[in-house]
Design a protein that fits this description.
Number of domains: 3
Number of helices: 10
Order of helices and strands: HHHHHHHHHH
Structural class: mainly alpha
Helix content: 55-70%
Distance between the termini: 70 Å
Length: 207
């Protein structure tokens, strides 16, 4: 079986300590933005592009440290594991169904790709589950006991409600606004059962 010939110029490995030429194709908008920043910083277009590429690699290497500062080592590790699995699974599953680059790029909108990504994330979380029997706190009040049995769902649904401007607390609303900017259209399709949100909200407000 003949291998498909690679398009474009052949790549050569750069030598340490020497500048190498990197030819890329970019949109007009990206080029104009780079030119504007290059002029503002008194650099050539090539220098500006090089600096920004280096910054992107530095920022990427800092991600584990930033997550650890925000969430602690264990949760940061879980988030990275879940993100890595979903990033690999979603596009592949979506592409396997439609065989288009668009479906792989927008796997969040592909039911099969999204479902497989969720299954991957759930597998990571289940693998990290601690040993022992699950037991609820002993509380006499039925409403409180019911609320404690769905803390996870209630907290998630409160955040989802915040994505639509109905956060149960100021803190949740601020978190939701920051998260919503990253989620974009995904946030608009997320809905939470109002009953569970109300239970959690009332219990928190009563404290």
């Amino acid at each position: 079986m003949n291998k498909q010939k690679r398009l474009g110029r052949p790549t050569t490995k750069a030598k340490a300590g020497q500048k190498a030429t990197l030819g890329i194709r970019a949109t007009a908008d990206l080029k104009n933005r780079l030119m504007a920043e290059a002029n503002r910083n008194d650099r050539s277009l090539s220098q500006e592009a090089e600096i920004r590429l280096e910054q992107s690699f530095r920022a990427q290497s800092l991600l584990p440290e930033v997550l650890e500062l925000r969430f602690g080592a264990e949760l940061a590790g879980l988030l990275l594991a879940i993100g890595s699995v979903m990033e690999d699974t979603g596009p592949f599953a979506a592409f396997s169904q439609n065989s288009t680059l668009e479906s792989a790029t927008h796997w969040f909108d592909n039911p099969h790709g999204y479902d497989q990504a969720i299954r991957g994330a759930a597998t990571i979380l289940e693998a990290a589950r601690p040993d022992g029997e699950i037991s609820l706190p002993k509380v006499k009040d039925k409403r409180i006991r019911d609320a404690l049995s769905i803390i996870g769902q209630g907290t998630a649904n409160s955040l989802i409600a915040g994505l639509h401007g109905h956060g149960a607390t100021v803190k949740i609303q601020k978190q939701a606004e920051s998260i919503g900017k990253l989620l974009g259209d995904i946030a608009r399709r997320m809905q939470a059962p109002s009953g569970q949100v109300q239970i959690i909200a009332e219990e928190r407000d009563s404290k």
